[in-house]
Amino acid sequence: MNLPYEAFIGLRYLRAKRRNRTISFNTLISMIGVTIGVAALIATLGIMTGFKEDLQSKILGTNSHIIVTTRTGETIKDYAALTDKVAAVPEVVAATPFIFKQVLLTSESGSHGVVLRGIDVRREPTVTEIAKNLRAGRLEELEHARSPGSPSLLPGMIIGKELALRLGVFMGDRLNVVSPVGPLTALGMLPKVRGYRVAGVFESGMYEYDSSLVYVSIKQAQEFFNMGNTVTGIEVKVADIFAADRIAKAIEHTIGVPYWARDWMKLNKNLFSALKLEKFMMFILLVLVVIVASFNIVSTLTMIVVEKHREIAILKAMGATGQAVTRIFMLNGLVIGIVGTVIGIPLGYSFCWAIQTFYTLPGDVYYLSRIPVNIKIVDVVTVAVSAITITFLATIHPCRQAARLDPAEAIRYE
Predict the structure, then answer these.
(1) SS3 label, residue 101
(2) What pLDDT is attached to residue 14?
């Protein structure tokens, strides 16, 4: 294969002076710098994407994709017809009513403020993954007033694993729910108290949910809060979670005023915006590693220009143009950048595989036993293009220095 003379000379300049070496030490150091930078970028972005998607799956496993409420905060009266109307919207998979209130939960060993969610036992599993997250008990127990083997007639309640540990309760134990809004007497409004039994324990993997969320049947919640035949809102599951914003607008257009549909991205906007910003900042910081490696390329090419000034002068005296000399040294920088990127990409994948395979997290501290990793092709392409672009830009100064070399001055004293 006949290469252009610029390519032949450029590749020759990357080699060492000694014949027993195929590449110079400075060139090797520059390639290693680019390789490490690319591998670190891919591994870091893969881990951050993995954590983000793991967190996203846990949030959407406990919450619905879209929540429909009234803009004024009032309860929804004709919720059965509204639920059917929402479920008929294109791309909506399922919909179910819910009640959302803050209460105080007490046991014999302690108390804790929680969020009580009243759910439709039959329709809730079609919207969220509460049934899959159960570690003990069944959802159907929420509709059974009598506990098996117990003479008590307490309604059932499902609580989080961390909340059960904090309150020191087990399956079948009694819990008291205290609501600040109770009957109005001559002494003022008295708190309302009702007893429940632990009918199930769930574990979502999110400490916030496992320590401060409880479930009861929607009928029990309506009765306890004196809500009559009303609910707080409608939970909605959609086919494409990333189209939830568009589907929420379609729901609002269908059901009209005074209802308000909010998707999961808006409900958790602060959290996901922070994760997105953190990922972007980590990308910027790790790009600095590649930039540092590019300085090695600048120094390597500058040294080659200084060492090869006589050869460059002879080439220009023989008719080589400044553009041809520029292409010679640009090829040097591009080869270093491309080789470093090509080696760095599989090395980054190897780092991620090793982290997932061999590195474990302590189970008593974290809910994850392994670090989640998800490498996106878009991230890999972005890293590769960024690394090659930076290394290409690093060749500009040495190339201009070589192109401006005066052959008469260079060989005057030779």
Answers:
(1) strand
(2) 60
* Parallel/antiparallel/unpaired status of strands 174-179 and 92-106: antiparallel
Q: Which amino acid is at 409?
A: E
DSSP-assigned beta bridge partners for residue 231: 76
pLDDT for 317? 67
Q: From CA 262, how far away is CA 18, in angstroms rounded?
A: 69
Q: What is the pLDDT of residues 322-342, one digit of tens each?
A: 677 777 777 777 888 888 889
Integer CA distances (angstroms), 159 to 163, 165, 241, 406, in order: 7, 10, 27, 82
Give the model confidence (pLDDT) of 367-413 as tens digits.
Answer: 666 788 888 899 899 888 888 888 888 877 777 777 776 666 555 55
Return d(Cα 254, Cα 86) in angstroms, integer.
8
Listed by start position, the domains of the chain span 5-58+271-410, 73-257
Condensed to tens digits (0 to 9), the pLDDT of residues 80-105 reads 999 999 999 999 999 999 999 999 99
How far is it, in rounded angstroms, from Cα 44 to Cα 282?
8
State the Cα–Cα distance between residues 207 and 213, nearest whole angstrom: 10
Angle at the Cα of 88 (from 85 to 89), degrees rounded to 5? Answer: 100
Q: Do residues 211 and 160 lie in contact, with contact meaning Cβ atoms separated by under 8 Å? A: yes
Which tokens belong to 110?
A: 């302690």
Quick one: which of 281, 240, 278, 234 has its CA closest to 260? 234
pLDDT level of residue 20 (50, 70, 90 thresholds): very low
- Which pLDDT score is estimated for 208? 83
Q: For 155, which DSSP code?
A: P
Helices (H), 73-160: 79-87, 130-133
Torsion angle of the four alpha carbons 60, 229, 261, 104, in this order, in degrees rounded to the nearest 10: -50
CA 48 to chain centre: 6
Coil, helix or strand at residue 184: strand
Average pLDDT, the chain: 81
Q: Across 71-155, where does the E strand assignment appear?
A: 92-106, 111-119, 134-137
Is the pTM higher than 0.85? no
The position carrying tokens 């979502």 is 204
Q: Residues in the chain, how many?
A: 414
